[in-house]
Amino acid sequence: MSKPILYGADYSVYVRIARLALEEKGIGYDLVPVDVFAPEGVAAWYLEHHPFGRIPAFEHDGFRLFEASAIARYADEAFDGPALQPKDARSRARMNQITGLLDAYGYRAMVWDVAVERLEQNPPDEALIAKGLLQAEAVLRTLSALKADGPWLLGSQLTLADL
Questions:
Q1: Could you identify which of 18, 60, 132, 145 might form a hypothetical disulfide with 109, taking C-beta atoms 3.0 to 4.6 angstroms apart as the criterion?
Q2: Which region, left, alpha or beta, applies to residue 38 given φ > 0 means left and ψ of -120 to 50 means alpha?
């Protein structure tokens, strides 16, 4: 087996999820930088790896994937190392619910509407930030209600939800 290749930017939340999964499994990989915000746009060669020009994308022995959740699940299931997904159906469903919650409701509000708007826009759109903070509060309240007792979101086991 060859070393997997992960395509993306090291600052990306979603690239970081894939990297954490690979690291937790003890998988060596190469990170190929891809700048989706380049002034000239996404490089044409990259569209063969991700048809929508987003990050991350992944390749392992000729098998290609895009989307962080698919990459993380593949890493967990295809390689030896500690399990990153619970064995029982209810815990797996809760893990999937949490990752879906963060993807659908948390990411945009917390990253784009609050952090990027506050840190990179001059002047920032205060109404957008306020709306993002309200959404972030709802997400974090829900996440707190779903969290099991223990150090990780599902209790005693680190899972893809934590990554």
A1: 132
A2: beta
pLDDT band at 81 (very low <50, low <70, confident <90, very high): very high
Residue 56: cis peptide before it, omega within 30 degrees of 0: yes
Q: How many other C-beta atoms are found inside a 10 Å radius of the C-beta of residue 97?
A: 13
Is the model's pLDDT at 79 over the cut of 90?
A: yes
Closest to 33 in 3D by CA, of 56, 61, 17: 56
In which order are the strands placed within the sheet that holds 63-66? 30-33, 5-8, 57-60, 63-66
CB under 8 Å, gap of 24 or more: what pairs does 102-106 form?
102/139, 102/143, 103/69, 105/135, 105/138, 105/139, 106/135, 106/136, 106/139, 106/143
pTM: 0.92
pLDDT, position 26: 97
Element (H, E) at 116: none
Identity of residue 32:
V
Q: Quote the pLDDT of residue 149.
A: 97
Q: What sign does the dihedral 11-68-6-72 (CA atoms) show?
A: positive
Q: What is the CATH number of domain 5-78?
A: 3.40.30.10
Predicted pLDDT at 84: 98
Strand partners, 155: 152
